[in-house]
Design a protein that fits this description.
The structure is a single chain. This protein has 400 residues and is of the alpha/beta class. The chain folds into two domains: 3-113 and 253-338 and 386-392, FAD/NAD(P)-binding domain; 121-249, FAD/NAD(P)-binding domain, CATH 3.50.50. Helices cover 28% and strands 26% of the residues. The protein has helices at 12-27, 63-69, 121-124, 131-143, 163-180, 206-216, 308-327, 365-378, 386-392, and strands at 3-8, 33-39, 43-45, 59-61, 72-82, 87-92, 97-101, 104-107, 111-113, 155-159, 187-192, 218-222, 226-230, 233-236, 241-243, 246-249, 253-255, 272-273, 286-288, 293-294, 340-344, 350-354, 359-364. The chain is globular. It starts with a strand and ends in an 8-residue tail after the last helix.
Amino acid sequence: MKRNILIIGSGFAGLWSALSAVRLLDQHGRSDVRVTLLAPQAELRIRPRFYEPDVHSMRAPLLDLFAATGVDFVQGLALNIDTEGRKVTYRTAEGDEATLDYDRLILASGSQLSRPPVPGLAEHAFDVDQIEQAARLEQHLIALAGQPESAARNTVVVAGGGFTGIETATELPARLRAILGEDADIRVIVVDRGAQVGAALGDGIRPAILEASRELGIEWRLGRSVAAVDAQGVVLDDGQRIDAGTVIWTVGFRASGLTEQIPAPRDASGRLQVDSYLKVEGLADVYAAGDTARAATDELGNFSVMSCQHAIPLGRHAGNNAAADLIGVAPRVYSQPKYVTCLDLGAWGAVYTEGWDRQQKLVGAEAKTLKTQINTLWIYPPAADRAAALAAADPSIPVA
């Protein structure tokens, strides 16, 4: 009977875990181990692009790639992980419950936007976390054209001035004018609890954010947070009211709730602590990759962040190491000392930095060209060609 490497999740980490595991098994001529990927759909959803328009197109089908590489795809939603019995219970597409056994498990089920109990948030706010929510926002924005002209109709409040909030806010003026007309009096207001613009991103990247905000007309309410949301706008924690027909929540992300079923240490974001081989601390047969893993990227005290920049190499290493562990060959230490940031700033351009202190290297149109390449080419899955796809899953490939 074949042994099984089970991967939960078809995002960046899950996809590359599967390809990397198959690659190593191929190299050692092992046909006695299968690689199974469990996910609600056989597609890679290009989540870093959900702040853009035409979000319905931001998915890449994976069935042909799985068929070419021999990955067994099981459609379903993981419900329960039994680490003692080494099995996962899931809900099938038909709504039934079923189980999958595993010899090695890779948890790559991603993360979700945090939704605190802010009054009216669930009922009235939009987000760009998942493709369904981003599509709902897009439909709402398009429908604004059918509403009577008003200041509130033309105003959007973005709650949160982190990476997602900034990219969403700076994209909005062009999106709104395409819908409401070039002469529309658009207001985009970012509400952020930080004392400075882009406080979470540091000093190196701030000048570009400030310049883009000025040119695009982005307003900032600093040192403030959204205390309540209703159909006509928001109330801030100082009592100030902003009338707005659109409120977008971008504050905070948390690892998949499946991490709570793993009896192992987790950080404040719910991520599982993993060792240098991406094995979950204290467990012999469970690995984590992508947004579910807190992995040391270097020897200087830096850890992976929730982004495809880290999810892809984490997947390549987790898949390789789970397969290596199962067939008795040496695993590969995960290391990713180079860290970069490429922040989209809408029609103004973008900014590209290197290092954890974010030293600016490219700005404006030049950085925008790089960001476009990243978003439309580099993060997409390989073609359904077995040799090329497995070669791309090599964990020794240099990574940013």
